[in-house]
Amino acid sequence: HRYCGLRSRPLRSNKSHKVFGFQMHIKVMFTRYCRLLSIQ
């Protein structure tokens, strides 16, 4: 994962940070699910 963009700009609002983390979590889970399907 690339956190360079996160470090360059300071996140002042905690809400947007939580939303971003949630989206990243969904992406990771989705890619893992696709990999499991591709293996089977």
UniProtKB/TrEMBL annotation:
Keyword annotations from UniProtKB, A to Z: Ribonucleoprotein
GO cellular component entries: ribonucleoprotein complex
Ribonucleoprotein in keyword set: yes
Name assigned to this protein: H/ACA ribonucleoprotein complex non-core subunit NAF1 isoform b
Gene: NAF1
